[in-house]
Amino acid sequence: QVQLVESGGGLVQAGDSLRLSCAASGGTFSYYAMGWFRQAPGKEREFVTAISRSGRTTPFADSVKGRFTISRDNAKNTVYLQMNSLKPEDTAIYYCAADLTMSSNVANTRARTYNYWGQGTQVTVSS
Length: 127
Fold this sequence. Notes:
six-stranded mixed β-sheet; 0% helix; single chain
């Protein structure tokens, strides 16, 4: 059983940056591809980005491409989401998720693929 805890959310102004962290425990972190999803009020949860076990595959949603980056530190059991040039439409609860996979280079974009989820961290971007 993997536990995921997100941190780093907050209230920022448009154009600012934030870095979210997701710390994993209870499993072998390197066995998991990791994903970030978000859910805005009144909207469905949507894919943001993911990173494969190897770190070589990192798909992004079109809405965040060029502004967000994802990285992982297997020694610290942590995945990061660096968010730059934030926009009000980035306001959402951000969730990290873990996908137990045999493949080193797969990073899924579908939420149903992921086995474990964190509780989420709120990101609010004011205009």
